[in-house]
Specification:
single chain; alpha+beta; 20 strands; about 45% strand; elongated
Amino acid sequence: MSIFSPIRPFVATVFFMLLMGACAHGRPANETLPVASVTYRSATGNFMLAYDLNRWRILRREERQVIMDQADVVFTDAAARHFMSVSTVQAERTLGELRTRALLALQQKGPDLKVLAQKPITVATVPGVRVSLRVTVRGLPLRYEIAFLQYGGRAYEVAYWSDAEKFDERAGDFDDLLQSFQLLRVAEARPVEPTWVAYPSPTRGYIVSLPAPGWKLSRESVVADADRQFETDSRLGYLAVIPEDFTGTLEQLSEGGVERLRRASGGALRVIASREVTVDGVRAVIVDAEVMASGHPFRYALLFAVKDGRAWQVAGWAPAELFKAEIGEQVREVFERLSFL
């Protein structure tokens, strides 16, 4: 398992902070040492970076053992309370898919995961995204900063994490690490951009398009009336198209669809927003909703459209934090690209 399923970083944090922290022998907090910048080079990972030898050390392989054993390099401070790491993996997935997979793995480890901030970045000419997280693992509140970079069929995760209360103590070092990060062979790299694949259904009167890599047809349908159902490559997000013969109004269709979802969820549904739009020249309604399932919040985007005695319901959904972070944006673009025949 790579760090792209970042259960390992959190397990590592708990392990080192609870077991190693007790025997740490760091320097006094008020002692300032000169910067001793040294370069770490990873030929297999195709990157190099600089770190302060007076503030960080590289964990030896035998210290890591099962914990983060597949990371290219892991740094820790003298007290073993702060950690930085770089992991690489061969990946033809999109940047968004890498980020989504990581968020889901974190949410499985700590259901209270919250995305504090995210923004696009460029590191050494490599496009990426930086995500700030907060999560509680085994009763320990943690802060996490991750830079996801994806180029040339290879993905990079540059991460910093710590006890939430002590996070700011070394956050600046992570910024310095990112600024020093360089690919060794940038000229060979090429970004992976998704291609939108059309799935026409002439007999049911629509064409839906989804990005690939990223989405695919589902092998198993969880929506009984769906004509087509799709899922992300990691099976984190879903989208279903439900066409039907319909002679009522758009308002009746949307109200009935929301009510059916409410009943299916046992009443644990909250409508966040509803708006009227035009898609491919057809009047439609989009409803954003949140549903509680097994104690976890899920976000839904529902599109309802009516044309010439036909109706279509298109639903996209995923765990709430993941929907807000990535999948929701993709579902909204799917809605914009819909065609009605």
